[in-house]
Amino acid sequence: MGTSAQQQDIVDQTISKYVEVADRAELGEGASRYKVVDVKGDLTSSFKGLYRELVRLGMAPALRRDNDGSLALILVKYSQKSNAALLASLAALTIVTVYISGLALAGLPGGGMLTPILYLVGLLGPLLIHESGHWIFMRRFDVPRSPPYLIPAPPLQLGFLGTLGAVINMKWVPATADELAMIGVAGPLAGFLAAIPVALVGLHTSAIVPASAVPPGSSLSVVPVIMDLLLAFIHTPSGYVVEMSPLTFAAYIVFFVTFLNLIPVGQLDGGHVLRAALGEKGHMTISLLFVAVLLVSGIYMPTLGLFGIIALFLLLLTRGRHPGPALEGSRLTGLGVMAVIIYGILLALTLPVPS
What we know:
- By secondary structure, this protein is of the alpha+beta class.
- Helix content is 52%, strand content 16%.
- It has helices spanning 5-16, 43-56, 84-103, 115-140, 177-204, 225-230, 246-262, 269-297, 302-318, 334-350, and strands at 19-28, 31-39, 59-65, 71-77, 149-152, 163-167, 207-210, 222-224, 240-243, 352-354.
- It starts with a helix and ends with a strand.
């Protein structure tokens, strides 16, 4: 997909406002490479301005350093279109599979005939809010993006949950490390906060039953830390346990999905944050250590082992790599540091622990 002469003139004029370049080389498939001779002003500020203007023209930029230390500006033409038919089809199918999953929870307290609807809203609501958190910050930073796509899965009756969550296609990496970190943490934070009222309402509609009445093997072996903290709002007499309502079960899943997304591997949300904070080598090191800890912990807590297997698969799929921000060598400032702190808090609150 080429670039017209008129559009190329507009792109070149835009570039000249921020940097002085020479030796433009075509890389094929709408990509080109410029040698940067000079930067007009502060490098970070100039690149952020250039990034935003070029993205609006349908060109995604990256600034990289060559072996001799000189700067190279890479431009890639990207598609601004989204598949509306696919978006609607996946959403409809996901609603159906999640609703069917909710039918399997009909015996839980606090639901009755509304159980499938409660499960649908309690699960898909926070998951969509999670993706909206990413989308809002991508829009704020002018990062090329798709709408959120819901991903269907077989229902609970077949051993799944009715959905694999939702995903946004980030068509290009953010301009700076700060923006990468904020986009990475915004989704988990939004989904986590949305799941808390779901969990609280769910806990208040759950039943308190004698522990002796619970069939062997039917109780949860692990729960996210946040669920243990929220249980403080429920008075449970000695010898009694909470029998989850559909909303509680939905929130329980959302918290676990949040933990999965926070694992610092590849381009999971945690991977974005840690790549922004630690750079390429640091991110790779933490990824390997985190996966190893999960797998070893799986000997004692099979749930953590399952997360470790998923993380290992993603690690192998991406070879542990993450491209990082478009501005190579970009470092965190106050905004990015805040994102890392929030990341650490969310990781601790969603960590699975023995119940």
